[in-house]
Design a protein that fits this description.
alpha+beta; nine-stranded mixed β-sheet; eight-stranded mixed β-sheet; 10 helices
Amino acid sequence: MTLPHESSTGLPQYPESYWLASSRIPSFSKLTQDISVDTAIVGGGISGIVTAYMLSKQGLKVALLEAGQILNGTTGHTTAKITAQHDLIYDEFISHFGEEKARLYYEANDDALRWIKQTIKEHQISCDFAEEDAYIYTASDDYVQRIENEVRAYGTLGIPGAYLERTPLPFETKAAVVMKNQARFNPIPFLTKLVEQFTAQGGQIYEHTTAAAVEEGDPATVTTLEGHKVTCRFVVSCSHFPFGGGGLYFARLHASRSYVLGVRTDKPFPGGMYLSAEEPKRSLRSVTIDGEPMILIGGESHKTGQGICTIKHYEALQLFGEETFGLKEICYRWSAQDLITLDKLPYIGPATADTPNILIATGYKKWGMTSSVAAALLNVKTITGEHSPYQELFTPSRFYVDPSLKTFIVENADVAKHLIAGKLDMSDKLHPDELNRDEGGVVRVNGKRAGAYRDEHGELYIVDTTCTHMGCEVEWNNGDRTWDCPCHGSRFSYKGEVIDGPAKKPLSKVEAL
């Protein structure tokens, strides 16, 4: 079988998500007029779609605005584990927030898992759903104590789990903690079914419609880049960096990337879902591609725009796969981006105490399949006036001195470092004429720093490397052929088009004189 861009056991030339490549996703027109609805949702990933679906089921008039195409962001590039096991966090959460809040975190994500399972059953959705146990393992003596602490935290919080010295994986481990009865699926057919239900219930979706500003008040008004207005009682921002409502979230979140390979292997996969406790992270789960069992190998996290030569992250996963299972073919490769908050808890609810009708949902720390549904469940209850036991836990206006203050200082010092370093970077750069086909990088054009990429046909694209968000200098991501900002995680195509915010405007084009 030959798959797109496949080359034996070498890496595919271009990144492509299996979820997106194997699915037919409906398309929608852009907003071309002013409209009025009960709720406007900004962002067409899992958070936005589930929130829209839930609200429309309750009879509310809802419009969903997506700057690009629905499901093509982080949701389309996930490893799609549906689990409340979000790394070694429960012992840490007990230490920072206490037993009650740590237990509520587990319960919120367990509620989300059960909601997904029930929704699949209700609509008879074929999405490769399967229940699996989830494991965090270590091959290092240094992490055994941390896993033992996590097992005790499970016991304290009543989480079904156990301590293991060995796992079913085909290599030696020192210790592991298992969380029982978690799950995995293909998120795209699941969500396209919800899109179908949402639009059948009168919901409106507008693609290629960038929300540029929000005017606070009751009602609130969302204005698009093209000047069209959406008047609404509630706004829900499901677009990574929160849209509107204040809160200085660009300083309270940082963007992190990770990488995935879809592979066919010599050795069979033993079942279960796995994550290494130590760095660099290694994530494993099974997947069915064209009726064949394969494995998703993930990991290699780093801050956006601050990785090594990014193709090397894929190569590290390739080496791990070869050493662990033996690789027959690498069928797909892709990367994903998510945001991490100061205290590792998502921000869900009113953006600020003064804007009760402008809600946000962000900061899932790469565990968006459950956290996004937990966010939708909570924000829907806020909109409909129902109480939720999770409101205080996830409120975006919270600030825990430990660990938030230390993280805030470190993160913003890092931003300042990259802002200054980029502006002072006067080292020798290539001339655009020196770039080969399918090669990009920082260049000198007209005596100034610029970014250039020459595509496989020889056409040259030159952009200004100054990020349109706050002026940091973007860096070339050769693994994904994008321009990535090391300060706040904005990403742009090689043509300069916005892929990920908080930037809303494209990079300026540069003409070589």
